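User: For a benchmark we're assembling, each entry needs the component sequences followed by a predicted structure for the full assembly. Here are entry 17's components. Please fill in the structure.
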Amino acid sequence: MKLPSPIFWQKSSASERENALARPALADSASVKKAVSLILSEVRSEGDVAICRLTEKFDQVRLTHLKLEQNQITEIASTTPANVKTAIDLAYDNIHRFHAAQFPKDIKIETQPGVLCEQKHSALEKVGLYIPGGTAPLPSTVLMLGVSAQVAGCDRKILCTPPSSEGRIAAEILYAAQKCGITEVFMCGGAQAIAGMAYGTQSIPKVDKIFGPGNSFVTEAKQQVSQQAFGAAIDMPAGPSEVLVLADKHANQAFVAADLLSQAEHGSDSQAILVCDDGEWTLSVQAEINKQLAMLNRKSIAEKAMNNSRFIVTDDIEQAIDVTNLYAAEHLIIQTKDAEHIGNKVKNAGSIFVGPYSPESAGDYASGTNHVLPTYGFARNYSSLGLLDFMRRYTVQTISQQGLVNISSAIVNLAMAEGLDAHANAVSIRLKQDANNV
Amino acid sequence: MKLPSPIFWQKSSASERENALARPALADSASVKKAVSLILSEVRSEGDVAICRLTEKFDQVRLTHLKLEQNQITEIASTTPANVKTAIDLAYDNIHRFHAAQFPKDIKIETQPGVLCEQKHSALEKVGLYIPGGTAPLPSTVLMLGVSAQVAGCDRKILCTPPSSEGRIAAEILYAAQKCGITEVFMCGGAQAIAGMAYGTQSIPKVDKIFGPGNSFVTEAKQQVSQQAFGAAIDMPAGPSEVLVLADKHANQAFVAADLLSQAEHGSDSQAILVCDDGEWTLSVQAEINKQLAMLNRKSIAEKAMNNSRFIVTDDIEQAIDVTNLYAAEHLIIQTKDAEHIGNKVKNAGSIFVGPYSPESAGDYASGTNHVLPTYGFARNYSSLGLLDFMRRYTVQTISQQGLVNISSAIVNLAMAEGLDAHANAVSIRLKQDANNV
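Assistant: Structure for entry 17:
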């Protein structure tokens, strides 16, 4: 295919630079918004009946029940191919190790004598894990969400995933769910699954927070329920997946081409960007992309995505780093000399892959990091999914009589400055009482 | 006033219980939504011009510039009354200590040999701090937001607050801002301030995330910009402020009454709830409330709020704890025998105040904890504001050649199970290359 021509950063105008780093425009979603809003209200008022009706409509299967029985989970999970079981086992172990290392410590300090302040953590009680369906099962997403919820210690982990037209859930999904201690699995997908978890139905428990990726209906449903006081919190806003590879001529063209293509095969709206300080070398990567592209199963998807790819050539590596920070990529791969050093200069990214042997697919599956990441520029203001997203923080203060005396005039003076005398009174009444007792 | 009659929990039906813990209904906000949406689009297209026009309309003042000069900040701040300065100094120190203690540690582990995974933290670059105006200045909110941003190390801290009709900002606000190292102060309030910070204007920088409380227009504006990819992230959803006091007959009625009233004076939609295992004692708190109410400056506001207060009587303290967890209060005050022990049994709350000398106003101003907290039941799934809200987490993986070999079959098998052969190829091409080089 004819890949987009390299963009020479130094020679580009401000608007050309902006265009070079622009995300693909999102389709105007007025119709999706309306359709989702209708699905949500149907599920909210009718519960399981609406979900079964919508499942028949969208997934072409008539279900008599939504929940998988425990023995069904066990039975179907056991049919997972041995090599996939082994792969899930290894990925599970690494993801578990990295997320267990994130377990937060409570904080307890006296800010001044007699004023004890604590920050405590508790796991969210009920979490909803959404696993998309489609052409292939996604056991890796089950691990990313399920291990986190398991390590956090969430009481109930509700998994929703659309059934096949035969009314089945893939063995790999259930094997991964079992590893994560997930016992509540519902055959339910799309906006109706998000509604079921946000509001609760006869069979699906209402959850506190909903996690996981999905199509435009799922994404819109998550946004809508997160705006409703009777809805649920969500993990983060979503957008098309993306990679930026920051390379220099010391990198292996075949590795870089493979990394760009592994992003491109995700979907035709995926964005793959190469930033390099060498124009000649950039062209040789393009040749390598065409060579590899021909062999891919998902060639047509990858080709569409590569149409929107960008090849940015900078004057030097410092400029390449600037461009990288500007873009704030979901996935950032650094294949340069001194990659670790360069990595320390980049902050705005969801997950960074350092050096020639750190392909994005390692993090997608098995290195241990979470593959649920902020896309679409949100890496500037949102975090990669981590253990803390499955927990909440709250504070506790325990103040002694003397402690209150020590901070009383600060409280009273600030309360009076803010015109809140009942706030001041809550302190002075306590001091007065003490004076009376002396 | 005639306070609401006690509700006996054990004798209440399921729907009576639900009503007892129901939050005040939020006004139907279709008109607010529309008005805010219009303001946002005006500011987005016209910038400062729109903000000045809206400021004239809503704040009755015609401004020639939005930004306060550094010498103005210094000059006005210096006029803060000495007792308020001292109060702000003490509060600043305590808040600083507690938030500095929250500074996160980066994590670095080998999930298996050659697979190094890191979780790193960086401060958000540009944060927007919104400080409401109204009848009195709120220096305490400047401290809660400003200290956090300062400790996190945010590059730029943009503060917006509405000017008085004389075009001035209160000295206390500016004194607190100075302490927090805030140099960019804009005379700008309401939805137009949120728009200014979310989109950026000629004078206001575009920020990554917007923090702070506000009226229904500000809240709606924050929600709307948080849904826009070109907008900004926000701290948390908002609702009317609330307190739940969990008490037994060992508590001091006057203290409990004062705490309920200090919540009630916030606004007529504030909710104050007493949960106690003793009906007689509950009535004596009501008598004390009426006594104290008579003396308050904001009596009429507090009276309206107390009309919607709830007095719940439980059979025993265990049931009182259950009710408390169900309500998930923004502020929870525990005044019982063994208050610390009881406190450990409660998880769903924004901030907990333990024992007779820990009034809510201590946390509102000076104990050191943050007073920006999840209300309206969001304490089930959102955290109290903390240092981490001013930072982002991201992950880094650095995999050695042998490390990649170790996890390669897991990646390849999972990628193939998910139908993503370009993902598999990104690994196999690296292994093949190595084999060729041997």
